[in-house]
Amino acid sequence: MPSQLIPFLLFVIVLTLVPGPDTALGLRNSLRGGSSAMWWTGLGCCSGLLVHAVASVVGLSAVFAASARLYTAIKIAGACYLVWLGATTLWKSWRHRGEVPEVEVRAPAGRIGRGTAFRQGLVSNLLNPKIILLFLTLLPQFIAPDEPRAETSAVFTLVFLVVAVVYWRLASWLVGGLRTLLTRRRIRLLLERVTGGVMVALGLRVAVEGT
Q1: For residue 31, which of 96, 77, 81, 79 has the smallest C-alpha distance?
Q2: How many whole angstroms separate alpha carbon 46 and alpha carbon 22?
Q3: What Å distances lie between residue 203 and 19, 82, 86, 126, 197, CA to CA?
Q4: What is the pLDDT of residue 102?
Q5: Are 168 and 26 spatial neighbours (Cβ–Cβ below 8 Å)?
Q6: pLDDT classification of 109: cutoffs 50, 70, 90
Q7: Are 90 and 189 in contact (CB under 8 A)?
Q8: CA-CA distance, 211 to 206, in Å (whole number)?
Q9: Is the pLDDT of residue 168 over 70?
Q10: pLDDT digits (tens, 9 = 90+) for 85-95
Q11: How many domains are contained in the chain?
């Protein structure tokens, strides 16, 4: 067992709980597809983490991080994707603002299915350049000089994924528990506009960071 497993676990838990683009996307999708959409968004994000982890092990992440052009291209693509998702959320909430009476919303317009939620979570995570740097800079700090690098990295990656899956499972259950509240039109539209605005802001922040 890695000597720094417990410190790494605590760090990953704190890191996972800090809201970011993935969380904003999960909340946005939960408003259109309920707890199931949030869960499948999370599974897509976790799959993206797995891809980044494998790429880090085989050295692809180092290539992307070392190339300013590739890194910038990924950053801009990710920023555009977040802005697009946030903007479409704002547009749909505005377009459907008067279509449903002030009662429960049982079938929100533009409902998101599992496949769409998973794909959006996967793409959002894959296009996040910070995840690339995370696996390149975070894992080595917790690997002792006398520990096998590949095996220890695999253990840390598994821990990272387990924490992420547990987080998304608990978050989706919480959304399910608040379903009655979230299905009220005014609250849902407000939350859609907030999450849409947050995603646009995050996308713009990603685009200008480091420029």
Answers
A1: 96
A2: 10
A3: 14, 5, 9, 14, 10
A4: 43
A5: yes
A6: very low
A7: no
A8: 10
A9: yes
A10: 788 778 776 77
A11: 1
